[in-house]
Amino acid sequence: MRNSIPFATLALGVALVAGCGGVSEEQYKAAQADAEKYKKTADDQAAQLAAANTKIDALNAKVAAFQQANASAQQQVQRTAQQNTDLQAISAALAADAAAGRVQVMELSGLVTVRLAEKVLFPSGSAKLHQQGLAALKNVADVLKGVQGKVFRVAGFTDDVPVHTAVFPSNWELSTARALAVVHFFEKAGIPGSQLAATGFGKFQPTVPNDTPEHRAQNRRIEIGLGPAPSALPVLQQTPAQ
């Protein structure tokens, strides 16, 4: 569009000047036709330029998406490598406890996880750590203190046998109290509170059906998952309200 005005002005100007010298009407109309032709050419070129810019914008968006996907893939590779390193290191450090049946080290739901059975940590129906539990947790705490950049999410689980006491009205309170007991022990052992979290799941999230005494014992447990710090999690982009 920017080129069409000079072309039209030039053509009409020539026609007017020529008209003053006695140019015929046919020549004047021819000049007008040339001006329209130049204008259409300029309009077509502007449309082609706009279409090309649209394509360039789309290609740039695809390049940015590919770059972001590549960066995410590289981060995932790094996280997986670090997770494997953590798993191997913790498994080796707790090998004696694992061999004695006091702990299990595994990858669970994408997190390196240390699992301890209820009998290792607590008396039945209690959230007070007994001596064996204190010893087992000290070994775990000594290992976790060497892990940086993680939050240790301590989760308590029970079986489906109802609990109803003055201290624990339900399995929710019992499972949460046990998770908190472990968190408090870790904090006293030197793990910063900023790296600790506690959750109680009650009778929910069993590892096996609660259909035998052995299975119920398996479901009564503490799990310590090594997760990313909240500051390391991606920020969700909020969609503006319509």
List keywords for this structure.
5 strands; 5-stranded mixed β-sheet; 2 domains; 60s Ribosomal Protein L30, Chain: A; 242 residues; alpha+beta; 7 helices
Description:
The chain has 7 helices and 5 strands; from the N terminus they run αααββααβαβαβ. It is of the alpha+beta class and 242 residues long. It folds into 2 domains: 4-61, no CATH class; 94-230, 60s Ribosomal Protein L30, Chain: A (2-Layer Sandwich). Helix 1 packs antiparallel against helix 2. The chain is elongated and about 120 Å long.
Low-confidence stretches: none
Order of helices and strands: HHHEEHHEHEHE
Number of structural domains:
2
CATH superfamily of the largest domain: OmpA-like domain
> Largest beta sheet, briefly?
5 strands, mixed
Strand order of the largest sheet: 1-2-5-3-4
Assign the CATH topology of the largest domain.
Answer: 60s Ribosomal Protein L30, Chain: A
CATH level 1 name of the largest domain: Alpha Beta
Short précis:
The protein is of the alpha+beta class.
